[in-house]
């Protein structure tokens, strides 16, 4: 249920509403709504329907809201991080080659000196 609370919080933020705004619209206390968002309180079906209507969604839309987006976002982030890691690996290998070259140059200079 914590992910549902996060979805509700995200929807609330997208609309620029405070917890107080939503609590008033649902006719519940601010602490009660806060517990819904944090996942402390499980949401019954009638409350779920009330929340979905408030956000102009069906219950199914509310329950699945942002799931595909999140998966795509995480996939994109993973691709980006993998690319950066690959770039760093290449940099490390290049630096290792330079260190070896410099070591060999120093070693040869010592031998000839």
List keywords for this structure.
Cro/C1-type_HTH, DNA binding, 81% helix, mainly alpha, rod-shaped, Lambda_DNA-bd_dom_sf, Helix-turn-helix domain protein, 113 residues, 434 Repressor (Amino-terminal Domain), DNA-binding
Order of helices and strands: HHHHHH
Helical fraction: over 70%
CATH architecture of the domain at 2-64: Orthogonal Bundle
Name given to the CATH homologous superfamily of the domain at 2-64: lambda repressor-like DNA-binding domains
The number of helices is 6
CATH topology of the domain at 2-64: 434 Repressor (Amino-terminal Domain)
GO molecular function: DNA binding
InterPro entries: Cro/C1-type_HTH, Lambda_DNA-bd_dom_sf
Keywords: DNA-binding
Protein name: Helix-turn-helix domain protein
Write the layout of secondary structure elements.
Blueprint: H1 2-14, H2 19-26, H3 30-38, H4 45-54, H5 59-64, H6 67-112
Helix pairs in contact: 2-3
Give a description of the structure.
The protein has 113 residues and is an all-alpha fold. It has a domain at 2-64: 434 Repressor (Amino-terminal Domain), CATH 1.10.260.40. It is 81% helix and 0% strand. It has helices spanning 2-14, 19-26, 30-38, 45-54, 59-64, 67-112. The N and C termini lie far apart (74 Å). The model has no long low-confidence stretch (mean pLDDT 89). Residues 8-62 form the HTH cro/C1-type domain. It comes from Mucilaginibacter paludis DSM 18603. Keywords: DNA-binding. This is Helix-turn-helix domain protein. GO terms for molecular function: DNA binding.
Short summary:
With 113 residues, the protein is mainly alpha-helical. It has helices at 2-14, 19-26, 30-38, 45-54, 59-64, 67-112.
């Amino acid at each position: 249920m914590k992910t549902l609370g996060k979805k509700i919080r995200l929807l609330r933020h997208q609309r620029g509403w405070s917890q107080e705004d939503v609590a008033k619209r649902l006719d519940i206390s601010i602490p009660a709504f806060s517990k819904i968002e944090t996942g402390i309180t499980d949401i019954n079906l009638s409350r779920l329907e009330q929340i979905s209507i408030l956000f102009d969604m069906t219950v199914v839309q509310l329950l699945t809201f942002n799931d595909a987006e999140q998966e795509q976002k995480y996939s994109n982030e993973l691709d980006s991080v993998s690319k950066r890691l690959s770039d760093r690996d290449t940099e490390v290998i290049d630096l290792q080659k330079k260190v070896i070259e410099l070591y060999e140059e120093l070693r040869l200079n010592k031998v000839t000196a």
